[in-house]
Specification:
By secondary structure, the protein is mostly beta strands. The chain contains 2 helices and 25 strands. The chain has one domain (4-373): Outer membrane protein transport protein (OMPP1/FadL/TodX) (Porin). The chain has a 14-stranded antiparallel beta barrel.
């Protein structure tokens, strides 16, 4: 069963294409699959997520904003044993907006909202001592920024934290990644283990609280994006068919954002999580003919603890996904995918006070990717 051509034809269609609405602030899943492609390769993609997060108890119809994020990668096989790569993604983020007419999360026409944005640029160099082994490592450049507004009775009203705003100005910092991959091309077997380090940021912070009290603009807030491990596996199981799996661990249980002014006023963190995230995706991919291939997958995410912050009141998910790939020629393809997420019920909490239950949540994810071999 010689599957090396099948491997190169449908590898990408077997990998998660749409964003994983994951624990904590996790978004992209930080895949390095593009770097492990044979030969010279480049890709660009965009993912869109349309979630609905609601609470009948608190009369919140939907507080989760739609969002999209791009990704791109290029990999060059410089010599028979040396490969170089550059990967761009947006690994962590959040975008939520509560209804302004809900007194629990709104006041005076304003609403509780959050926006967190990150950008990652990973540079890799790989060494392939044999056809089967690939050892790789490299630096990671990352930027982080965010804004949060708290409004309403959930935060004690305007006399307490219900008039709080924070602006975390963009900060840049560096980390690293390292890993190895083993493959047997004849049977389309490949496994890879990738570790990414935590990255420490010190963000210039302005906090506004209680009718205009302002934290000095040179205040700093520490944000440490978490370390993680990805394990990827695939193998041929029949003619024209692959099975694949991904397992991801993210170290969220020590993550906390603790602005000085908010903490001194309330003794609480702005955002924190109590558990690590474990997630897994398994599925199959099949080549139908020389132009078309597809995949189906099932996913699970453990969440990062419950109760959770009101800025992201879900706990993990189950998902199902479908992907399709059209290859007009051997050296390029167009890929689309869709996923449906059953988002876990969660108790929203501010500080040590439970605010209410968020239930029956779901999301739809869509993705588009173009790949080119040169």
């Amino acid at each position: 069963m010689k599957l090396n051509k099948i491997y190169s034809a449908i590898l990408l269609s077997t990998l998660p294409l749409t964003p994983a609405l994951a624990a904590g602030l996790d978004r992209s899943g930080q895949s390095i699959a593009a770097f492990l492609q044979p030969g010279n390769y480049a890709e660009a993609g965009i993912s869109v997520l349309d979630p609905k997060v609601q609470s009948n108890q608190l009369k919140v119809n939907d507080m989760a904003e739609d969002y999209y994020f791009p990704s791109a990668a290029i990999k060059v096989q410089a010599t028979e044993q040396i490969s170089l790569g550059l990967l761009y993604d947006q690994p962590f983020g959040a975008e939520s907006l509560y209804p302004s007419n809900n007194p629990v999360f709104g006041a005076n026409g304003e609403a509780t909202q959050v926006e967190v944005e990150t950008h990652n640029l990973s540079a890799l160099i790989g060494y392939q001592p044999t056809e089967n082994w690939n050892f790789y490592a490299g630096p990671v450049y990352q930027t982080v920024q965010g804004t949060v507004s708290l409004r309403g009775l959930a935060y004690g009203g305007a006399s307490k934290l219900g008039s709080y705003d924070i602006n975390l100005k963009e900060d840049e910092a560096y980390g690293w990644l390292a890993g190895f991959a083993y493959q047997i091309p004849e049977i389309a077997l490949k496994t890879a283990v990738t570790y990414r380090s935590e990255i420490k940021h010190e963000l210039d912070t302005t906090e506004t609280f209680k009718f205009g009290a302002i934290q000095p603009p040179n205040a700093l807030t520490e944000v440490v994006t978490p370390q993680s491990v990805n394990i990827d596996f695939q193998t041929g199981v029949a003619a024209n068919t692959l099975a694949f799996a991904n397992i991801r661990w993210v170290h969220w249980d020590q993550f906390a954002v603790t602005p000085k002014f908010l903490n001194s006023a309330s003794g609480n963190n702005l955002i924190d999580y109590s558990d690590d995230q474990w997630s897994a995706t398994v599925g199959v991919g099949r080549k139908f003919n020389s132009h078309w291939s597809g995949s189906a997958s099932v996913g699970y995410d453990s969440g990062a603890g419950n109760p959770v912050t009101t800025l992201g009141p879900t706990e993990g998910y189950w998902s199902v996904g479908l992907g399709g790939q059209y290859s007009p020629a051997e050296n390029y393809f167009i890929q689309v995918g869709v996923k449906y997420f059953w988002l876990g019920d969660a108790t929203a909490r501010t500080g040590t006070t439970d605010v209410g239950e968020f239930e029956d949540n779901y999301a739809l994810g869509y993705g588009l990717k173009i790949g080119y071999r040169f």
